[in-house]
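Tokens for chain A. Residues wanted.
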């Protein structure tokens, strides 16, 4: 994508009612008005809130929102030029139960209050295979603690990835920390009984991986508060 195109999308995002772009300072000083008040201030209802972390072009957030009008969805990514596509598609389709938040995942606790979120989707994250980059891996212990802070006690997390490494790493971490693995599948398109929302929606990258013959994996889990 050229720099002119990016700038055009950044400017257009500013005009989109479904795009929220807080300043970093706003988040760090706990001055973000939506924190703890997403349903009241944005969605104007009391439906469960579902997040997609690293939402990219926003295909999953929009796809889920279309299938589940009884839930509210928020796609989160620091790259606004990417989720411009999802935001525009939602506006053009009059899909009012999805929004897009430009923020770093590291600051997720600054964006949502405790127990404000019902589900989290992590779709095709960078597996960060190099050892020194494990702190950026979206299912490491540090991130799981952040998610636990904002999730309702009965809330759960979905991980969908083409990375067998990420799938295995996450399963190992979950079992080791005695978290609850509700469902795990290392090849969803070659299995029976896979939840439809896991296979019916395909991201741009997912389609690319499938064309390459890569298996797509999926885990649904809950973070245990009391593991003793």
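Reply:
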């Amino acid at each position: 994508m050229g720099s002119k195109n990016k700038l055009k999308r950044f400017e257009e995002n500013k005009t989109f009612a479904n795009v929220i772009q807080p300043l970093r300072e706003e988040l760090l000083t706990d001055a973000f008005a939506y924190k703890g008040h997403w349903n009241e201030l944005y969605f104007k209802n009391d439906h469960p809130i579902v997040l997609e972390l690293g939402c990219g072009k926003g295909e999953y957030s929009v796809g889920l929102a279309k299938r589940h009008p009884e839930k509210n969805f928020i796609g989160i990514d620091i790259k606004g030029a990417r989720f411009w596509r999802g935001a525009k598609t939602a506006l053009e389709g009059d899909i009012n139960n999805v929004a897009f938040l430009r923020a770093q995942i590291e600051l997720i606790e600054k964006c949502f209050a405790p127990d404000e979120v019902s589900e989290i989707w992590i779709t095709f994250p960078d597996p960060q295979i190099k050892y020194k980059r494990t702190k950026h891996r979206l299912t490491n212990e540090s991130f799981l603690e952040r998610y636990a802070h904002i999730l309702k006690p009965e809330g759960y997390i979905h991980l969908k990835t083409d990375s067998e490494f990420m799938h295995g790493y996450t399963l190992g971490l979950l079992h080791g920390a005695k978290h609850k693995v509700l469902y795990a599948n290392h090849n969803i398109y070659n299995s029976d009984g896979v939840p439809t929302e896991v296979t019916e929606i395909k991201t741009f990258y997912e389609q690319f991986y499938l064309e390459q013959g890569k298996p797509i994996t999926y885990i649904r889990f809950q973070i245990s508060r009391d593991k003793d």
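The mean pLDDT is 94. The domain at 3-222 is CATH 3.40.50.150 (Rossmann fold).
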